[in-house]
Amino acid sequence: MLKFKENVSLKPYNTFGIEAQTKYFYKATNTLELKEILAKNQNLTFQVLGGGSNVLFTKNYEGITILIANKGIKVLQETPEIVVVEVQSGENWHEFVLWCLNHNYGGVENLALIPGSVGAAPIQNIGAYGVELTSVFKSCKALNIKTLEEEIIVKKDCEFKYRSSIFKTHQKRKYIITSVCFQLQKYPHQLKIEYGALKAEFKNNHLPKIQEVAAAVIKIRESKLPNHKILGNSGSFFKNPLVSMSHYELLKLNYPELPCYRASNEQVKIPAAWLIDQLGLKGTRHGDVGVHKNQALVLVNYGKAKGKEVLDLAKKIQSAVKETFNISLETEVNIL
Q: pLDDT digits over 198-236, tens only?
């Protein structure tokens, strides 16, 4: 029989360190438990948590909070060139990356130190330093909330885009991802070290090992991003906006140093951090919330910030960017 905890603080379960309570709480360690929770509590709303690294709580939750805590990594297929592994959703993402490095499996080294769980990674199509999850994703198992049947969803059906997938758009709240299959490389690895600061790290080293690439990524991330255990945050709060070439060229007239990355023949991606920095907002503080001094994309909780205070700051930043650059910033973080 399922035993729920009642009136539980969610502060330990979100990296922002925001205080909010949930009326009911359950730590699910397998798919059978998930099915039972959903089948027996159809009259109650629910929300799903993984690592809590991509959420902002703005109020208490009156339904059931389900913490996904299933564990396990299993090799499904192996050839001289590749290995396919199935990873349970409750595994910590960075610990999975370290597991790959220990086994000399390549493909996720650029994604080291990204907080969160494996099950949340496809929802967001996480990415860093020129690599996105879609490059190693093969398929996932997902529990259909309506039918309570587990389905296999392959890459092409996930409709991966920049920081997006079907699980964040038209299939949002219709599935709970229970495990993810990755196709990883064996040696020799195909490295991607041409992106930004990572390129500078290896300008004199033409053939680093995947372990060295991961170490460089960790070094760069730690120099820019605060440790959420010390300073509450959820990493990048905003997406880098895509704008048309004509819009970019117009902005360049007033901002000749405006950086960009080509996304297609018609669009470029502009670093949101650069836009926020230009407005003089990096390092600013408003009570217990602020913009991190080293990375303008990161909003931080200095101690006792409320979720609504963080959201109010985010809205002010969005408004200022829109007014100055005529660019709409979208949040990466899920507002709950």
A: 888 887 767 889 999 999 999 998 988 888 889 999 988
Which domains can be identified in the chain, with CATH numbers? 5-68 (3.30.43.10), 73-223 (3.30.465.10), 226-335 (3.90.78.10)
- In this structure, the strands spanning 82-88 and 131-132 are unpaired
**pLDDT at residue 53, rounded to an integer:** 86
Q: Give the residue carrying structure tokens 């910030």.
A: 305
Q: CA neighbours within 13 Å on the CB side: how many for 20?
A: 26
Q: Residue 318, SS3?
A: helix
Give me the amino acid identity at 83.
Answer: V
Residue 12 is given by DSSP the state G
What is the three-class DSSP state of 59?
A: coil
Q: Which residues are catalytic?
A: 163, 236, 332
- Residue partners of 123: CB distance under 8 A and separation at least 6: 165, 167, 168, 177
> For the whole prediction, is pTM greater than 0.85?
yes
Give the number of other CB atoms < 10 A from CB of residue 308.
Answer: 14
Q: Report residue 113 as tokens.
A: 């130190």
Q: For residue 334, what is the enclosing H or E element?
A: strand 334-335
